[in-house]
Design goal:
heterodimer; A: 520 residues; alpha/beta; Rossmann fold; 18 helices; globular; B: mainly alpha; two-stranded antiparallel ribbon; 15 helices
Amino acid sequence: MAAPALELRGITKRFPGVVANDAVDLTVRAGDIHAVVGENGAGKTTLMSILYGLFPPDEGEILVGGERVRFGSALDAIRAGMGMVHQAFRLFPTLSVADNVVYRAEPTRGVLMDRAAALRSVAELAERYELAVDPEALVETQPVGVLQRVEILKALYRDARILILDEPTAVLTPQERDRLFTVIRRLRDSGRTILFITHKLGEVMAVSDRVTVLRNGRSVAGLVTAETSPEEITRHMTGRSVDLNRRAAPHRPGDPVLAVAGLEVTGEHGRTAVDDAAFTVRSGEILGVAGVAGNGQTELIEAIAGLREAAAGSVTLGGADITRAEVADRRRAGLAFVPEDRHRVGTSHLASVSDNLLLGHHRHPDRQRRGWFKLRNVRAHARRLIETFGIKAGALNNPVSTLSGGNLQKVVVAREMSHEAPLLIAEQPTRGLDIAAIEYIHGRLVSFRDEGGAVLLVSAELSEILALSTRILVMFEGRIAAELDPAAVTEPDIGLYMTGAYLEREKGGAPGGRKGGQDG
Amino acid sequence: MDRTDRLDRLAQGVRQIWANPAVFPFVFAFSVGLAVVLLTGGNPFFAYQEMFVGAVTGSGLRNTLDQAVPIIGMALAVSAAFRAGVINLGGEGQMVLGGLAGALVAIYMPGPGALVVPLAMAAGMVTGMLWAMLPALGQTRLRLPILITSLLLNYVARSITGYLVRFPFLDDSVTLTSTEKIPEAARIPKMPLFGGVSLSLVLVLLLGGLAWLVYKRTVVGYETQMAGLNGSFARYGGIGVERQTVGVMAVAGAVGGLIGTHLIIGSAYRFIDGELVVSGLAWTGLLVSLLAANRPGFILAAGLLFAGLQIGGQSMQRNAGVSWRLAQVLQAVVIVAVASRLALGRRRRKGRRSAEAEIEPAHVGEV
């Protein structure tokens, strides 16, 4: 048998206080789609960064096509035939697709760049791999799915034999995801090797030939996809079995807690980010807001939470108009909020665990008297939350940045839930977390609902929306495209609204309002 | 066994001291100074000895303590704003205007010292406070960056006091561009301690203690610190960051004005045009606060050290023939070392964060 396309032997990488990779072995056969799965913090991204020459391993060796290589930088890796598609795209928004693809490898005529040749070869390449892009379009005008194709083209243009895709589906709609899988298969069939990093089991099963499972920085299993099952992979990832398909039991909603009417919000660059949004969230229900990120969800939530001004419309919480209220007043009126960005908004990196757990509770009469903290009660409050929510934190005075992603999010969730506010806004509450943490937070949200709380849940993860929501709103380009019943829809149905495809259909003259429950 | 135990503890203590972010800069600075003196053919150990002796013995100690009062005071003023993430570079203007206001009350207000002195201090504080609130309101109402406005207002303050001292309040009996002398009764008294240290020392120490209490133990201290560490987090949690900006500036300005008043009615006894500016005390205070990471305990220590450097430097020049500017060099190297350490620390943190990249969410809008 020929030498494997890529082989990692005993790769170890240490960072202060953590071993990110611990003697990882990985063998990738040429012409395979090889999935690397693991919970967050398992060391996937570190491994890929080493593979792509972004930093050197402390121990171990890398073999490409049977030959030992040593990458001093990403350029070395590219020269050895590696191509990387990062999670966050690295493109120039104001340049054309073709310019981005040929950047740093431009075809030239004399000292000038040969634009025509660039356009031609990019169009050719795109056609050969059926990666539909418009080479002349500006990158900033293109949707996310296209940008990813541009990134793939970039790698192909440099004739990458081994393509690394780091969590490529995180930003895609189901339809775009399926299209990506077709592309990946086609690339494999043309003789390239694909390394596909993900934590989604469905994708592993759908597209890969082989799987390597990482756990706690170690490679714990190398499996052939056709011979394994999601349950087996999960067992390797977590060391225990979990139920992935639990849908929340239906529940009887009570009185309205939050009412939004005719809300209009201005986003960056003065564009209308939220247009005429209207809905209510009742006690005892979870209202799920689905949508591809960037369709106004963030602005909607910020306007409700008081971090962004509403241009028009009203927000009513528990009967009180809070449209123009300050954040503190909104919180007093009964709003708790788990924000999307737990690193920059939900926590304060340099502040201690205790200080992070205190925010918003710090004026509670149990914790202070006339502006002086009752230090004993403050500490007791922090300890109580740490215990109730099973947060793994060292000393209370340690900076919160020493916590892992899952525990950091637990800090946010614990703090916000312990307000016992009637309304909880949960924005991407489980993004980037491992299965155990996701399960835990889902359980918390459901029990909050069962105790009569109202939850406004925003998530880009459709499975999460479907698993938890009592009702589903879909946002597209700032508007509420549909209100759906989770029991009666499937992922592709929601996808129609997320991508705006429903508009095409309506133009075709199909009757029925855009707020029908049973559209698909 | 007992001995190794003790040795261990000693080693650990040494490590702790070494790990303290304020220690390395001083060691580094004195090493650089040593090299400089050696290169110029002097005896660095003699120079340092003279510097030390001059700073802590005899009248040197009193001078050091007197010099420490405004340095520590201005550092505390700066710390109030810096801790809350408000970059107040207007300490000088707040100090100068407050100083003049205090001086004018002390000169023109009749009455016993026990009444006039506190009133002069109050006048200095109110003036400094109002002056500091100007850039704060500019930021919160008009979105003018406080960093720039507070700095530029220093020049305005300098010109205003320059005009007032030159024209309406000029004492034309002397050749100085100055106000009249502060009457004996309206001066801040000296204590019969270390050969007559100003009573303001007690005031500054009390201020330091108060700052420590407020920063550590109160809701206001917590809210300001949260705003300073992460404004988005504070705003999200319901802290009124805008109102707070005005508040901390008011406090910083009041303390600045108080220190200005002390410098005139407790030390110089005349408001001479430009004198407070030339002293650079506001800026030394700012550096001390930076060096101490805005923590009151460290501010007291670092303020004393800087004051000792300045006073000891003069004595070193007299007795060891090494220019007092060496003290300035040491001060400057300390600052550079602190700044580079901050920058290095930030880079190291960044490196670690890239290891945590897995927990960073994908940024969809980032193309």
